Amino acid sequence: MNLSVALIRRMSVSTRIFLRVNAVRASGLVKRFETTCAVDHVDLELGEGEVRGLLGPNGAGKTTLLRLLFGLLHADEGSVELFDRPLGGPDSLLPDGVAGFVEDPSFYPYLSGRVNLELLAELDGTSGATRVIDDALERVGLADRGHDRVSGYSTGMRQRLGIAAALLRSPRLLMLDEPTAGLDPAGVRDINALVRTLSRDGVAVLLSSHQIGEVDEVCDSFTVLRRGRVVWEGTAAELRSEAPAAAYRILTSDDETVLGIAGDRTGVHAEPSSDLGLKLTIDDGELDPFVLAVGAAGIAIRRLELLVSPLESMFFSLTEDGPGRDTTPEATA
Amino acid sequence: MNNVFRTERRKLTAQLSTRILALVIVTGPFLFAAVLKFQSGVPGDTLLGVWVHSSGFAISLVVLSFAGQWGFPIIAGVLAGDLFSSEDRYGTWKMILTRSQRRRDVFAGKVLAAAAFSLALLLLATISSLVAGLVFTGAQPLVGLNGMLLSAGDCLLFVLIAWIVSLLPLLAFTSIAVLFSVATRNGILGVLGPLLVALAMQLLALIGKGGIVHVLLVGSAFDDWHGLLTSQRFYGPLIEGSLVSVVWIAACLGGAWLILRRRDFAGTPVPRRPGWATAVRVVAVSAAVIAVLGVATNWGPVTITAQRLQRAFTPTFTNLTLLQQRQLGRAVPRGAKLNILTTCQRRAASNVGPGDDWTCTLTVLIPQAGANPFNPTPVTYDMSVKSNGCYKAEAPPAFVGNQLMRDAHGQEVVNPLYTIYGCFDTS
Question: Which residues does B116 contact at the CB level (< 8 Å), separation at least 6?
């Protein structure tokens, strides 16, 4: 760990806020591929210790944006600053502490996971790499598989190894492209816990995902992309406050009576589901009173399952094609 | 750059292809020498090939000649042809370029690793071929390229120098492989590219009579040690070949760097169905380049002429005749010379340029008593002359005897006049 990172981590949170440095500041980024504009005038700011979810469906421009931030692509327009230092041309050096991966992390399949990490540590000039590598493998749960060839790793193991590779750089800014892709639920939980820990240490994290359900618990803020443009940006609280009602499916012993109970209550809408039971659209805070009312009417609830969370509803409304979806200033003007 | 070099060294060492290559280089010359040991045939088409049973140094030089044609381009292709494209295949560019290394460091480190491994394999080939020759045949003197017998000490020195001066053209082919690897992003093309270039250069060396294109053929630079293996050494081709190698290295590495520097790493490209237009374009461009180069081989000063060939072949034949006489046990006075009139010509229209259709007729004037003081005895050799000034001459056994003869001690030895190798300065 270099001196500046160590100093920053020893500061209190309030001091860090006072000395706030933008980990990422991207202004007016544009990247075109032939006739496609993959990134269209994107602005992005990310402070230290902030965890930002970069959301969007496949093809929204998330990976291209990350490649621009890593300097793997040359922007047609706009600029990128990492820790207030402009990212130069194609031959520029990525600042210390900037780590992560784009698309799926890739390694030399004929070498072991540990040797792959050793090579990457060598490229970073990391001293005492053995201990650092041991620590990184331990943190991602690959300590006992480090000597296996990468060719025998599952997708999830490669994903974990990619995160270990990022940790070798003592990150101050971590940019991860779909880090939970291919991971089992326990793996998703572990990665989210790791991100939270790093964030508490002042590491800025940019998490790209097309599944809001996997990152909503860990993110402080979100940037939503659609067709290369930012269509929504704000904190997690703002996103939740703007989110529409959640949708559930409910199976009961008397659907007809439940329809009547729902009709009598505000913020609750029920209709017969196309497959089985009822589809229930219900505002935040109305679910528990509704369930109690159904129970008080002597009706058994046999199953209650979440179909679409409020954040997912919001995500779909922002990113799916349809009239009035584009909320950018130009589109709404 | 040092860090990149170290990582590339580890990767190259771990690769199966590098290990197989090193194994072939170590064992190949021993297998070759062992096969020669147990059979009477010789690789007569290769320079000094008829001497492989007579001197172990010839084995090393024959291996070097083969390496110059195919071995070095293969080494360059295997080492450097996949050096950059493998990062595309494994998708690891994004992992490398998001560490603490500039692109220029990555490029320089990789090139340096390829150069270091090229040097290491060259040294390995030098040692293995030399040891194989000395173990299986021995450290006997070798007949040089102008018919003079070279001592074992001289041979050892020349063999070592001959291998070492091959380093620059080897690095030139390594640079060609780097360019293929960076430009095509395809490991197969990267490995095969240097071989195709070597083949094209060998074909171009066979045609045309001008010196410009022939000088620029870096494949021919592997033969430039020939000038050292004569009693009157010439260094012109060696200097020219070294300069040409440096030009190739600079051009290929410069081109590769420009491509890599400007490159966008935008992920795995969507494979496109190759259309007819692309194929037609590639064929048209290749045909145009070949046609231009074919015509260009006639540009520049003529390097292979009948006069040069006559001047080189006459003393070589004289030296070999005297050597033969000594081997047969006949007394040859010190400083003895033959009176020879030599006429070289091609069956083709003009008596210039490389080709297999040269003939040289040597009329040996043997002194005799009587009114006519000389008995003219003509010997005609079929000559194969290369653009680098090296030739191979063969005569029918009726004139010069069989390939093997019995020396004064009754031992079977190579008849030095049966197949004659020589080289002259074309610079």
Answer: B5, B9
